[in-house]
Design goal:
Cofactor: heme b
Number of helices: 11
Number of strands: 4
Largest sheet: 2 strands, antiparallel
Order of helices and strands: HHEHHEHEEHHHHHH
Protein name: Chloroperoxidase
Bound molecules: protoporphyrin IX containing FE
Shape: globular
Domain Heme haloperoxidase family profile: 46-256
Radius of gyration: 20 Å
Strand content: under 5%
Structural class: mainly alpha
Region (Disordered): 276-300
CATH superfamily: Chloroperoxidase-like
Strand order of the largest sheet: 1-2
Distance between the termini: 38 Å
Helix content: 40-55%
GO molecular function, one term: peroxidase activity
Length: 300
């Protein structure tokens, strides 16, 4: 009976998501400067006051949710958050589609064994290892080495942003799909070699690429904005989502245009081979060959 319900639910969900994609295709995009809806925090680029988290406040491994709490869009203490409310606020803050804003909080509720309609969470609950949180993140050290997953890893973030090869029309640096694949390859191979508890199955590889792909879509890959969002977990003054479709970013757009190209461009083997070729004199051949050996049969 449960399986039948799940099949019907999933078909209904993907039909809904696809129909929102069609609406986006046939309706004009929101005007620049008018992406955040009137009457909601951030309208006109005016975000509520930024206050960094204090003692006892709950924060998590997700920079986008932490930023919402730091601006008081989610409760500032990061606690007593209803799943539906979280989805509604993600919709107005980042312009993800209603389908995404239902799907992810609903997935989180199931992962935590909570009732999507009735229960509440605090942000820290989302750090359940290998729930959505996983090893080889771009903005956090692995949980086995850093139990506090709310802490941005400055070194990784700066290295990621410095790796940007794109340029916008004014010559400002932009992160690209290739940049994300390349840096993810490095993070996965490096973390695999030094974290003895390292795991990353197919589902978590896809989560990793989904999360990081928001840097290119919602945040438009703009390095200047990403510095503020990732390092301070703050929304820059005047910022609005770079996704302008009326119905927001659907999964049926997000996955084929960004998430899958990022994920399928990741190759730990290629990264290790390039690393070995770049500095033959100083390379630690033992580490590199042991890293290659550690690559499981399913990784690239
Ligand atoms: C209810 C909705 C959401 C949930 C439950 C959620 C949960 C998470 C979790 C658990 C992580 C840590 C994954 C890891 O270990 O790397 C994460 C990372 C991340 N999320 Fe979210 N998130 C949500 C919404 C969003 C939204 C709306 C955005 C973008 C606007 C976003 C952007 C990111 C980014 C950029 C990362 C960092 C990826 C990395 O470090 O590799 N998330 N999210």
């Amino acid at each position: 009976m449960f399986i039948l319900f799940k099949i019907v639910h999933d078909i209904a969900f993907f039909t809904w998501d696809m129909s929102l994609t069609v609406v986006n295709l046939v309706t004009p995009s929101r005007r620049e400067g008018h992406v955040t809806p009137e009457g909601h925090p951030g309208f006109g680029g005016k975000w509520p006051e930024f206050v960094p988290p204090g003692e006892g406040d709950s924060r998590c491994s997700c920079p986008a949710l932490n930023a919402m709490a730091n601006h008081g869009i989610l409760p500032r203490d990061g606690k007593n958050i209803q799943f539906k409310e979280m989805g509604r606020l993600i919709r107005t803050t980042y312009n993800f589609s209603p389908s995404f804003c239902y799907f992810v909080p609903n997935y989180a509720a199931q992962m935590l064994g909570k009732n999507y309609n009735k229960d509440t969470i605090e942000l820290k609950d989302l750090d359940l290892h290998n729930g959505i949180e996983h090893d080889a993140s771009l903005c956090r050290e692995d949980l086995a080495l850093e139990p506090d997953q709310s802490k941005p890893h400055e070194g990784y973030i700066k290295e990621l942003l410095a790796s940007a090869t794109g340029k916008d029309k004014d010559g400002n640096p932009l992160l690209t799909i290739k940049d994300l694949s390349k840096y993810s390859s490095k993070r996965r191979a490096d973390a695999r070699s030094y974290n003895k508890d390292f795991t990353l199955d197919f589902v978590h590889r896809m989560f990793g690429s989904s999360n990081s792909s928001t840097l290119l879509t919602i945040f438009g890959g703009r390095i200047k904005d990403l510095e503020t969002i990732l390092l301070e977990e703050r929304l820059p003054e005047g910022w609005e989502s770079r996704v302008r479709g009326q119905m927001g970013l659907t999964l049926s757009t997000f996955n084929p245009t960004t998430v899958w190209p990022v994920e399928f461009g990741i190759s730990e083997k290629k990264y290790l081979a390039e690393k070995a070729a770049q500095s033959p004199a100083d390379r630690d051949t033992t580490t590199i060959s042991s890293s290659v050996n550690k690559l499981d049969t399913t990784s690239n």
